[in-house]
């Protein structure tokens, strides 16, 4: 889901038909301020985590980062990983092998994207 910060209005939502569905969506986000951040809603529950893909077009960007948080079934949130890509990059992170996120321990994830212009 993607929400408008000021109103909470749902701008985009995508739901799988079953727990084995893989959801893939590209949502361009443009900003005009010096800094910006986007926080996802909870992603999951998942029985397994695989790849996280992102593309940054940050030619005029001073700093980019994506933070990944895991949430257990009790609702406790844990910081898991911070990725700082180059100013313009297309990357993928294998959540299972690169950073060892166990869906049994963290069936939900949350992503925070930060950008400084």
Short description:
A hairpin with a 6-residue loop joins strand 1 (2-3) and strand 2 (10-12). The protein is 0% helix and 42% strand. It is mainly beta.
Structure description:
This protein has 117 residues and is mostly beta strands. It has one domain: Hypothetical Protein Tm1070, Chain: A (Sandwich), CATH 2.60.290. It has no helices and eight strands. It has strands at residues 2-3, 10-12, 35-39, 51-57, 63-71, 77-83, 88-94, 108-116. The strands form three sheets. Strands 3-8-5-6 form a four-stranded antiparallel beta sheet, with no helix packed on it. It has a two-stranded antiparallel ribbon with strand order 1-2. It is globular and about 40 Å long. The two termini are 25 Å apart. The model has no long low-confidence stretch (mean pLDDT 77).
Main beta sheet, described? 4 strands, antiparallel
Cα-based radius of gyration, to the nearest Å: 15 Å
**Roughly how many Å apart are the termini?**
25 Å
Strand order of the largest sheet: 3-8-5-6
Query: pLDDT average, as an integer?
Result: 77
Number of helices: 0
Count of the domains: 1
CATH class value: Mainly Beta
Second-tier CATH architecture = Sandwich
Poorly predicted sequence stretches spanning 5 or more consecutive residues: none
Elements, N to C (H/E): EEEEEEEE
**Relative helix content:** under 10%
Strand content: 35-45%
CATH topology: Hypothetical Protein Tm1070, Chain: A
């Amino acid at each position: 889901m993607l929400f408008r910060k000021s109103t909470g209005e749902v701008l985009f939502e995508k739901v799988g038909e079953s727990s084995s569905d893989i959801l893939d969506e590209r949502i361009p986000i443009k900003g005009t301020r010096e800094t910006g951040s986007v926080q996802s809603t909870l992603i999951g529950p998942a029985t397994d985590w695989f790849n996280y893909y992102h593309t940054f077009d940050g030619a005029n960007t001073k700093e980019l980062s994506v933070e990944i948080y895991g949430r257990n079934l009790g609702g406790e949130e844990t910081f898991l990983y911070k990725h700082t890509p180059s100013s313009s990059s297309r990357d993928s992170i294998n959540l299972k092998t690169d950073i060892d996120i166990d869906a049994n321990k963290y069936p939900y994830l949350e992503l925070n994207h930060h950008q400084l212009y």
